[in-house]
Amino acid sequence: MLLARLLFLLLIVLAARPAGAEQVRIKDIADFEGIRSNQLIGYGLVVGLNGTGDRLSNSVFTRESLISMLERLGVNIRDQEAKLQTKNIAAVMVTTDLPAFAHGGSRIDVTVSAVGDATDLSGGTLLVTPLMSADGEVYAVAQGQLVTSAFSAKGAGASVTRNIPTSARMANGATVEREVAVDLSARTDMHLSLRNPDLTTAERIAAVIDKGLGQAVARATDPRTVVLALSGRDVVGTLSQIEDMLVEPDSPAVVVVDEASGTIVMGDNVHISTVAIAQGNLTIQVAETPEVSQPGSLSGGKTVIVPRTSVQVDTGAGKRLGILENGPSLRDLVSGLNSLGVGPRDMISILQTIKAAGALQADLVVR
């Protein structure tokens, strides 16, 4: 009970805070150009499975990969390939992200996913797999024991599966072999890219940076980009200062509706003009409760089923027309709709209708 009261008081305090007063670090809403990860991919083989691997008769690529691997190791089985019946091997795709500034010898995590009809990768070992980028160059090599955090069991009449046994993770499973060279110290300018493009936020970021550094070095060129002039400055030190500066981001008035799940998310700047709302539909409920009529044992009658039907009609007569006054914030909009006893599903329909009437001063996005 005490915890519930504390949570209630916390919600009141948060609701009382002025809209748009929250400041965040620049590093949390923007990225520096060139400081990014790169996607790597590779094709490999997993061995040591307990009969849960690919069926070689169905997975031609697995069989050919096995034969090629054995040939590279000095084992020639081309004349005996028809006799390959093992189910302890599986073809897999290996994916990972090469972090920015990763040096040779660094270890990175990888994800391993089955390609063929393998049913479980648990307990398998990934053989040496080169990981390439879009340019075709090898940047890392993966090998090691797989961990799926899943299991699958089945019997004659039932089966159970937890998580996805055909996908596995390898912590520190790949070694970086090639670096992506990025020399920040040689840069004379840098682009700051906003994750949520907005002209107001871009101008605020430029103003905060100029004030924090004591000179004009930042300029917003579009809703997503702020150009930094870094000539003659310590680039790394300057970027370290910039990413920790606080700025108040602006957000557009948007209402996002997911009709499939009944989820509604509204921004803090959503406004609604004065509008009257009446919500209610004709509802007819029909319930069938058949009864069995059983005659006496010597009456000579027959057992029959007697239908019993109950029909209820709700015309919505008890629901009244409600007025939502022009509210300055999202809080008043939600409070007004809740005062009408409107649920999420009905609220979606109401928001769409309010938008059609021109009273919702926000962008309505329906997914």
TrEMBL record:
GO terms for biological process: bacterial-type flagellum-dependent cell motility. It is found in: Bacterial flagellum basal body. Keywords: Bacterial flagellum, Cell projection, Cilium, Flagellum, Periplasm, Signal. GO terms for cellular component: bacterial-type flagellum basal body, distal rod, P ring; outer membrane-bounded periplasmic space. Pfam families: FlgI. Residues 1-21 form the signal peptide. One of its GO terms (molecular function) is structural molecule activity. Belongs to the FlgI family. The basal body constitutes a major portion of the flagellar organelle and consists of four rings (L,P,S, and M) mounted on a central rod. Assembles around the rod to form the L-ring and probably protects the motor/basal body from shearing forces during rotation. This is Flagellar P-ring protein. It comes from Lichenicoccus roseus.
